[in-house]
Task: structure prediction
Amino acid sequence: MVGLATAWFLQEAGVAVTVYERDRVGAGASWGNAGWLTPSLVAPLPEPAVLRYGVRAVVSPSSPVYLPPRADLGLLRFLASFVRHSTPRQWRRGMAAFVPLNERALEAFDALAAGGVDAATRRSEPFLALYRSPKEVDGLLHELRAVAAAGQRGVDFAPMSGAEARSVEPLLTGEVHAAVRIHGQRYLDPPAFVASLAAAVRARGGTVAEGSGVRGLQDRADGVVVATDAGEQRHDAVVVATGAWLPALARRFGVRQPLQAGRGYSFTVPVDRMPGGPLYFPQQRVACTPLGDRLRIAGMMEFRRPDAPLDPRRVAAIVDAVRPLLTGVDLDDRRDEWVGSRPVTADGLPLLGGTTSPRVFVAGGHGMWGIALGPLTGMLMARTVLEGTAPAELRPFDPLR
Result:
């Protein structure tokens, strides 16, 4: 999403673009995620609640946040920095940085639609966050109020009883005793949207080179040489938007911020009656999204190597977490079991802007929000490449910080 959106907005200014994709369009974290466009929920991942999990929780295979017991030194250093940033003061600082992006995130999707990207976004009405205990609601209510207190406009929500939630969505069981309804959000079908965005880039004369992995970059006097699987190519400027693999190409250009793969899992299941909008189970960290005739169920934050194989225990943990909460959902008829690597920074802020080279730029590290913030990132990164200076909205996300 991030790379294609940047290419599309560069084309708006008349720039000829080539997108290098090592696999196929949307094969990474953009494929199997929940597809939520929820500015009211976009916030730094390091938060004070992280400190309450404790070591026992994060090494349990059934935990929604999972750390392998045999973590390497790099991951341990990343987690130590992540914990240092999980304080109220750091969260408020990060939230203040996100506010200008969140307020314009949906605007960028509208710009793509007006420019010919034909995949639709859908209004999330209703969008329900669901809980087994009324007391559990307090955490989300506190966070939403904190997002509004940080200056973000349009954060519109209301608590609901379990009975009210079940009257809106009958597929919820009697185990749901409280909810929060959040207004003004959207969602999309991630594979369909990214494919439509790639088609739009191609239709405007851009090249999307699938199966073209990038092995290295060299900044030379006459431009940036991109070493691909098919040989070397020269370009006037390069934007590195390689998600969890970003450090491999960006480190030599001064980008030192710790970044790890926060792997998420998903699958689809049939339902007797499709919900009217997304369902969120914050305590279980599980997201449900209507996609066509099946319900996508996604969850987990697993800190492992980005190319590690799918772990069936993570899928089983998601199933066990939501089975008591949903009815008329066949959780045993699973298709499209998937794992993808979200790029997570230790301070919870993306890496967006220039590097030590005036011709090499970086756009990544969005954590769970690469779909929601991808188009706006592309819009602002295009300005950065063309003008040579990041706009004010991107300055807190300086890759050289």
Q: What stands out?
A: The first strand starts at residue 18 and ends at 21. The chain has a mean pLDDT of 94. The chain has one domain: 2-397. The chain is about 30% helix and 25% strand.
